[in-house]
Design goal:
The structure holds 2 protein chains of 2 kinds. Chain A is an alpha/beta fold. Chain A is built from 10 helices and 12 strands. Chain B is α/β, with parallel strands linked by helices.
């Protein structure tokens, strides 16, 4: 694994206008509101958060599938955040995406093989005559049988369909694969098969994944580095070991303690932080720390001034007034 | 899996009869015995449930776990007599509740049980709530029907229930419509509706699958609290071993329409016996014992079609420890100490 940066996102903002029709006032949903992170080539970078945290919108912005309001997205040497038309289309072979729902990601009237061939043709990968062979190769690599190239999506199971989607994403030999909840719709046994496949392919081809998930178990297993998002911002980011063994942000701790522990004796643990209510709407981003309204440790400062994301240990960044600049936790443990 | 007098359904069930001798003090509230369900399809008859039996005790949470297509939900629906017939058909078994067999009750009597003594919550609250009625109307309806309360009294009960499930400003929100609630709040409304008549049994079918982990934790806490305060027995259907660890007292593991293992939650998670149970636990990536970045243990393949069942163990094709015998004969259920049962040839002859 090399250590150079493949994906570099700086101060990314994605704001959507809502309302503003005949009635009502136009408002802005600040889905992503100033997000920066770097993903090393050959690594798996995870983004976790609740619904509405902006994790999927971040993925879509990196994929250039939503309009970027501000900020830059660099892929290697190229700035892709503001490319247009044919230039963007040519760069697209370098970054590909796998979505959550394999049922919605495949055209039901198109044979699986044609879905792959379309991608190869569109991206102009290799000689046209070699493309059917490449499709067969991709099927084998993703654990499907070449004779299944002739089948329609409904003839596959959910897990197999997600393999087709993965094969299609890999068709153009991309450098970055953005995965938005790729295993969330799958049954647990099928999920393990898919995760193993993704890890094998990642190692074999030196792929880089930006992996979006709400499932902390999956993220912990897969991702070397993880960012936690809350209401459009990263509130904590660290290498896996640090983030899971020594989370600093009260929100990260709350997320961790909400995740099932697989240990029936841990049920009545008293140190669990239980969050009340749902995340606030990104329409009404609170003043100060965005998490203050649900944080059991919030103080006056938290409600007035937004904390900056600071590096408190090598690679460990956190945005919380109640954590010191060397990572000392100043709220009751 | 623990049933006297199910011999008719399956001769192998008879060796279970002696093992379910529970203390008389805790007679089960709900006892499912030798339940069989078939569905007619264009391609043949699918045997969706085969000799399913378990017991549910007051104040207890029974977790039913397995992949999709293993018959978890059909078990609940069959017990509630909510299988549409045709194409479905209950072919065998009994469901004892309060001393009566629900499967032989007249429909009018059954309606008095459903939603009143036994109620159910489903995975997707938005499709289970009627968008055209306020949540208060929907909660109050059950109370009016089953308890004959007046409109004013039933609305008061609805407010009380919304408060009990932790919805703030319940007196106002009772007049709001489902779309005005978030996903977690809607599931709370569902729970309020299910518990409005103070049921003896709550069947929760994947109640948190569509929710965020933080909201899932709130819903689990809520169900646990309500179980403590009302003594309601809970049947939790899930595919998630993590949810089992959080919630269940005892566990039923289902595979391809049959029960493959039952036992106390600590036994099941701590020392799973059936290769399928082991596989389900091993392939869950959230456990502390899995080294991050290592490949997970896999259960290869998928749940088999129930249309073409061979003679042997239904798990044989995916099993890491398959033996010749497994492909020839369905394994008998072996009863082990600690009210543990496993249906696997590996444990033949190790009876309690």
């Amino acid at each position: 694994m090399t250590t150079d940066t493949l994906l570099s996102v700086r101060d990314l903002k994605v704001h959507f206008p809502v309302g503003g029709g005949l009635f009502g006032t136009r408002q802005m949903v600040k889905a992503v509101d100033g997000v920066s992170f770097d993903v090393k080539r050959g690594s798996i970078f995870g983004i976790v958060g609740e619904s509405g945290s902006g994790k999927s919108t971040t993925a879509l912005a990196v994929m250039r599938l939503v309009k970027i309001t501000a900020g830059t997205v660099r892929l290697g040497e190229a700035e892709i955040g503001h490319l247009k038309g044919e230039a963007l289309r040519r760069e697209r072979r370098r970054f590909q995406m796998v979505f959550q729902d394999p049922y919605a990601s495949l055209n039901p009237r198109k044979r699986a093989g044609d879905a792959i061939l379309d991608a190869l043709n569109l991206m102009d990968v290799g000689e046209p005559a070699s493309r059917p062979d490449r499709a067969r190769e991709l099927f084998l690599q993703t654990g499907l049988r070449p004779e299944q190239l002739q089948l329609f999506p409904h003839q596959f199971s959910g897990g197999q369909r997600q393999r087709i989607v993965l094969a299609r994403a890999l068709a153009a030999r991309p450098e970055l694969v953005v995965c938005d909840e790729p295993v969330s719709a799958l049954d647990v046994a099928i999920q393990a098969q898919m995760l193993n496949l993704m890890m094998r392919l990642q190692r074999e081809f030196g792929l880089t994944y930006l992996f979006i998930s709400h499932d902390l178990g999956v993220v912990r297993h897969l991702c070397g580095e993880v960012a936690v998002m809350y209401l459009g911002r990263i509130v904590e980011q660290a290498p896996r070991e640090a983030l899971f063994e020594r989370p600093l942000h009260p929100y990260t701790r709350a997320l961790w303690s909400a995740a099932p522990s697989f240990d029936p004796d841990a049920r009545s643990r008293k140190d669990r932080i239980r969050l009340q209510g749902d995340p606030p709407s990104p329409l009404k981003v609170p003043q100060g720390c965005r998490f203050a309204g649900r944080c059991p440790f919030a103080q006056d400062l938290c409600r007035t001034k937004e904390p900056a994301l600071l590096e408190v240990a090598p690679g460990h960044q956190i945005a919380c007034h109640r954590v010191g600049d060397e990572g000392q936790v100043m709220y009751p443990n | 899996m623990s049933a006297p007098s199910t011999a008719a359904a399956n001769p192998q069930a008879s060796n279970l009869a002696s093992t379910s001798a529970a203390p008389v003090a805790s007679t089960p509230l709900l006892s499912v015995q030798g339940l069989g369900v078939e569905f007619r399809t264009r391609r043949g008859v699918a045997r969706v449930l085969d000799d399913v039996g378990f017991e549910l005790r007051r104040g207890q949470t029974l977790g039913v776990v397995g992949e999709s297509g293993c018959g978890k939900s059909v078990t609940a629906l069959a017990a509630m007599r909510l299988i549409s017939q045709p194409p479905g058909r209950i072919t065998a078994g009994r469901v004892f509740f309060d001393g009566r067999d629900l499967l032989s009750l007249p429909e009018a009597e059954m309606r008095r049980v459903r939603g009143n003594r036994i109620s159910m919550i489903f995975q997707e609250p938005m499709t289970s709530l009627n968008p055209a009625y306020t949540v208060g109307d929907q909660i109050a309806e059950a109370v009016r029907l089953h308890e004959g309360l007046s409109t004013a009294d039933s609305t008061a009960r609805a407010v009380q229930m919304l408060e009990a499930v932790g919805i703030p400003a319940a007196a106002q929100r009772v007049h709001e419509y489902p779309h005005q609630f978030s996903g977690g709040m809607r599931q709370r409304v569902m729970i309020a509706m299910a518990l409005a008549c103070k049921p003896d049994v709550l069947i929760a079918d994947e109640p948190t699958t569509a929710l965020d982990v933080t909201v899932q934790a709130q819903i689990f806490d809520l169900i646990a609290e309500l179980r403590e305060s009302t003594g309601t027995a809970v049947m939790l259907i899930t595919h998630d071993m993590g949810a089992i660890a959080e919630m269940a007292d005892s566990v039923v593991v289902m595979y391809a329409g049959r029960i493959v293992e039952t036992g106390d939650v600590r036994d099941i998670l701590g020392s799973p016996l059936h290769p399928y149970t082991r596989g389900l636990i091993a392939c869950s990536p959230g456990r502390r014992t899995v080294a991050p970045g290592e490949l997970l243990e896999e259960i290869p393949g998928t749940v088999p079609s129930l249309l073409e069942r061979g003679a042997g163990c239904l798990f044989a094709d995916r099993c890491a420890r398959v033996m010749q015998k497994c492909r020839q004969k369905l394994p008998a259920t072996t009863a082990l100490p600690g009210r543990r049962q496993v249906a696997c040839w590996l444990y033949e002859g190790s009876e309690a």
